[in-house]
Design goal:
This protein is of the alpha+beta class. 22% of the residues lie in helices and 34% in strands. It contains two helices and seven strands.
Length: 128
């Protein structure tokens, strides 16, 4: 069963966050696991009404390389989970702290700016 939750080991989380640029004291790691197997993670931070996405990490993928189909699925799942986390904590906008490589975010409704991408939360989180 796949789950995505904030990292429980805060010391390990601090260590991972130290490798990510531009994070502040409110940054968290959301981990995607299949049972005990780590499938990927995303570094996020809540800043007032903005969810900042600082970094995605999925197996064998680097930002300079176009993701394959499985990696794209993992990235998309992490993005949607990060948006849900932001929505549950009062964010109404998503902003990245990195450029939109390979139009991954543009294909999901984000607007591209120089060095980052952004979108209202409603682009990703829908209510029926």
């Amino acid at each position: 069963m796949i789950s995505i939750l904030p990292m429980q080991n805060r010391e390990e989380e601090k260590k991972l966050l130290s490798t990510v640029h531009k994070t502040g004291e409110n940054a968290r790691i959301l981990q995607m696991k299949d049972g005990e197997d780590l499938m990927g993670w995303v570094a996020v931070e809540l800043c007032e009404n903005i969810l900042r996405i600082h970094h995605f990490c999925v197996p064998e993928w680097q930002e300079a390389i176009k993701p394959n189909m499985e990696q794209t699925f993992l990235l998309d799942t992490l993005l949607r989970s990060a948006a849900s986390y932001g929505e549950n904590n009062g964010a109404d906008e998503i902003v990245t702290s990195f450029p939109d490589f390979f139009d991954f975010l543009k294909c999901r409704g984000f607007l591209q700016e120089e060095g980052y991408a952004h979108t209202p939360m409603s682009t990703i989180v829908h209510y029926s």
